[in-house]
Amino acid sequence: MKKILLFLLLILTSTIGSLASTSDSISTTYSDGVFTSQYRCKVFASEKTIDEVSDKLVSDFQNSTTSLFDWALKDLGLQNEGNELIIIIKSSNHDVKTGITHGLFDIVVPYFKTFSNVKVDAIVSKTKNNHGVTKVSANIIYSSLLLKNGLAVLYIIPQKNNEMFFYSNVSIRFGWFFNIFITKKRYKSIVEWRIKKFTENMRLECIKTEKMASKK
User: Fold this and answer.
1) Does 11 fall in a domain?
2) Tally of structural domains, the chain
3) For an engineered disulfide with 173, which of 51, 53, 71, 148 has Cβ 3.0 to 4.6 Å away?
4) What is the pLDDT along the chain (216 residues), one digit of tens a residue?
């Protein structure tokens, strides 16, 4: 058992190492109805800044979802911004006991149909391991129309000299309608760029927070 655990640890370490050596890039694969996207980028920021920004992301998602449009979800083509698919957040309620955030959305497919009051339940959480790797995850556990399931994970991996490596991994299986509507090509124009933009927004917030801290 000890040898197996050691072997798994070596695999994890080598995987993280190979990811961290990769420059900014995004890629998407499709298999058995599931889209999986990965995006990588780097930022210079302290561990304190990373903790502050990642805590802010989780807190805003759970308690003040609309605040996310000022930074993490900024310029993502949401909230009535013109795009091929528009997602409007109508309400969000976080259940402290269960850890579930209950969201209510309108989904607009321009020139086709508006799907009103789509329910989405998600668990957003943050963990940090002994090696300083921060993991922020959003697990979609229920959606009345949009998704069958979805999992988005952002890993923030510390490097040398205050360099941090961001690695986003998103897996999505769409609901029956959107599974037909969203082709591989359309996925790239609707979803893939938003994953990249969200990660870059996190990066920019870290840079902004780091600059503010240096002025104090």
Assistant:
1) no
2) 1
3) 148
4) 444 333 333 334 444 444 444 457 889 999 989 999 999 999 999 999 999 999 999 999 999 888 998 999 988 865 455 556 677 888 889 999 999 999 998 888 777 788 889 999 999 999 999 999 999 999 999 988 778 899 999 999 999 888 999 999 999 998 887 788 888 888 888 889 999 999 999 999 999 999 988 877
Buried-state track 24-34, b at ≥16 Cβ within 10 A, e below 16: eebebeeeeee
CA 97 to chain centre: 23
85: in domain: yes
* Residue 50 forms part of a structural domain: yes
Query: Is residue 16 in some structural domain?
Result: no
pTM over 0.85? The answer is no
Domain that holds residue 143: 24-214
